[in-house]
Amino acid sequence: MTSEAQQKECLALVFLPGRELSRFPDQMARFDFLRRHYRVSTVLSSAGTGVAGSRRTDIIAQRNPLLFSLQAAWKLLWARRDYDFIYVIGLPAVTTFAFYRPACPIVAYAPTHFEQSYGPERRRPFKLSAWLKLSTFLRGLARVDSVMAISRQLAALYTGRTPRVSLIPMGVDLGLYRASAPAVSADGRLHIVYPGSGGEGRGLDLVVACARRLVAEGVPATFHLVGCEDPVLERALAAEPALAQAIRVYAPMPYAEVVRLYGQMQAGVSLLAGNPFYSASPPQKIFEYMAAGLPVLCNDLVTHTDYVGDNAVVVDWSADALFDGVRRLHAQYPAYLAAAAAQRARLDDYAHTTVERRFVDELEIDLH
Q: Cross-referenced SUPFAM superfamilies, in alphabetical order (predicted)?
């Protein structure tokens, strides 16, 4: 990167309501790319703390995207500060530009379908406040110069809604996983990891039902759920103590600890319902599993199957199919482990180093 590029000044607009940027590995990586190549002068953030690497952070403690954007537009209007460009993390924050139109380029990171924040478009006319949020979001999106989408589905979604769309895939820091060496477990069990908070459409109900069969039929497999605070899970474990043989729950932990836990596992699981936003946004966890050399257990959804190959057991969306998948993975584990090692060696396109080059190249196109 030239010294000229390093002098370019960026304002980062971050809307992750109630959550710190560091909790989101892919979004945090984009911010790291920014601060390594540009001067990040100011961050307007919905989080309650500053962001390391910025000279200044202005906090807008607001969970509502419309109200956040109104306050962000007001700050930008009255600050009258000249930036070389604005970078948006947290797509609903592009609503800011429905109220304020800066002279510099605006680039937005799009890791999700906008319906994940606003709900299905077809329901909009029946709720005035929801319609207002969506219509102002789309107006702001049309004023964004460029959107960086992480999947072909998202690139297709945003094409035509904003002047320029680029496809830059989700990345993973391969260096964090160099020490990971999965192998058949000493206790003969199949240890399957799942990091995530759970929630609707994330398949934890399938995991619970599968675990019942694992216990009942004596299949040596355990799901390790990191940071899951899902009511379905909590109720099941309270009512059925025997499920603890097949489900182990961990409190939320720093990302580095999650990476270390991967090194003790034999596989990773990802389950997503086939709704509009999960069918457009690939989950970060499957790239992490592949970087760690873990075989993947996932359901048959395009945002899984676009990336995994013979390193994965792909199942239908049902507890019985998941159970059969666990048994198949256990019975043929050496073959899946070898396939996972081969897949790990083919991840260069998703390495942070590759993604960072594409990220900066795209920004330079937008800035010129």
A: UDP-Glycosyltransferase/glycogen phosphorylase
CATH number of the structural domain 3-171+351-367: 3.40.50.2000
Q: Domain spanning 174-347 has what CATH number?
A: 3.40.50.2000
Question: Where does the chain hold its CATH 3.40.50.2000 domain(s)?
Answer: 3-171+351-367, 174-347
DSSP class of 296: E
CA 105-20-227 angle, to 5 degrees, is 135
- Percent helix, strand, coil in the chain (nearest 5)? 45, 20, 35
Q: Which residue in the block uniquely carries the two structure tokens 């919905």?
A: 46
Alpha-carbon Rg for the chain, nearest whole angstrom, is 22
pTM for the model stands at 0.91
How far CA 140 is from CA of 77, 208, 334, in Å, comes to 15, 42, 51
DSSP per residue over 116-165, as a string? HHH--GGGGGG-HHHHHHHHHHHHHHHT-SEEEESSHHHHHHHBTTBS-E
- From first to last of its 368 residues, the chain has per-residue pLDDT tens of 555 556 899 999 999 886 777 778 889 999 999 999 999 988 878 775 556 666 777 888 888 888 999 999 999 988 777 899 999 999 999 999 999 999 999 999 999 999 888 877 656 555 777 888 889 999 999 999 999 999 999 999 999 999 999 999 999 999 999 999 999 998 999 999 999 888 889 999 999 999 999 999 999 999 999 999 888 898 999 999 999 999 999 999 988 999 999 999 999 999 999 998 899 999 999 999 999 999 999 999 999 999 999 999 999 999 999 999 999 999 999 999 999 999 999 999 999 999 999 999 999 998 88
Tokens of 57: 């952070």
Do 314 and 305 meet the contact criterion of CB atoms below 8 Å apart? Answer: yes
**Inter-residue contact 9 to 86 (CB < 8 Å):** no
